[in-house]
What we know:
single chain, 223 residues, alpha/beta, two-stranded parallel ribbon, 7 helices, 23% strand
Amino acid sequence: MKIVIAGGHGKIALRLTRQLAGRGDSVLGIVRNPRHVADVERAGGEAVVLDLEHATVDEVAATLAGADVAVFSAGSGNAATAARRDRMDRAAVVLVMDAAEQAGVRRFLHVSSINVGCADDPGIGEGYAVYLQAKRAAEQHIFDRDKLDWTVLRPGVLADGDGDGTVELTAGNPIAPKRARFDQVAREDVAAVLVELIDRPGTAGRIYVVVGGDTPIEKAIDV
């Protein structure tokens, strides 16, 4: 398959690229910074430099041409302003979805957050709340798409280090729980879950929450 990853230099995206390329898939990562191209190539993929904050639908659609799957794994970063969070964590998602529809790419996977339902919690922290509000708005745009075979993955608190190939994966719903959770999950395992979701078209139209757990990933998908 050919998979295009928006946010190709992200920590999950590089791991996903390595896993997909390692089994023979073609991976193209969309990156903003030309200096990040080499990192994507070292992971086994190719890279295209395109700033999703300023790109047009036509430009992104050209990048997606011929792809089987689009994965949105971009993010605004921990120190982003509220305006940038909206541009990257909401508007860029809409941009990539519009481009996918234009390019005829139906399969779309989105990396969201376990706590999207807690955006209005006064105790969650202002910066985190703004991030979650943008993520929640992006999800609402996704749920309204009937021309995309979308799947939303809501990971817990992301951790570096080696994954162990086991997780706790539960079915989510459009109305996310409003109680904050801070269970951790290894980025390596999140990437492995995305690989399984890519391979299973029957997961389209579903939402999954993933945290660390004891169930092998290939079995955990069957929830």
